[in-house]
């Protein structure tokens, strides 16, 4: 667990990379650590630096190229109409943290279904690379998140919200 003097009531951790389809994006870790990465249960969707977001989104879109795109919803620009598909296969996405901690996201953290005609990639882009990175509740919904403030540690366990 990391702290920021200017935001003392928030919990930060060191995101070092993201993988999609088993392959790391390979971005410089400072893209996340420079502004800091906040774990925020009060924010639904994750907010990433523009360079990280565009790389992740473009790879995701490539994996999803056989599905029909739908118009954006709110600030989510990658949406699909899945009404004609009995099953939707999404690529595996994992968040990789310092300390050899990897959280493999549940499908709800990869594709959020508003309704059958609108399912969106629940990540969004910050205005610039200096804004705080936010890991939102959709990405840790299926984990039990433990905040050990006394020992300055954050833990992730199975069987969070279902």
From TrEMBL:
Protein name: Protein ASPARTIC PROTEASE IN GUARD CELL 1
Short name of any one Pfam family annotated for the protein: TAXi_C
Keyword Protease carried by entry: yes
SUPFAM superfamilies in the cross-refs: Acid proteases
Family listed: Belongs to the peptidase A1 family.
Every Peptidase A1 domain range: 1-157
InterPro entries: Aspartic_peptidase_A1, PEPTIDASE_A1, Peptidase_aspartic_dom_sf, TAXi_C
A biological-process GO annotation: proteolysis
Biological source species: Dendrobium catenatum
Keywords of this entry: Hydrolase, Protease
MF annotations from Gene Ontology: aspartic-type endopeptidase activity
Highest taxon above the source species: Eukaryota
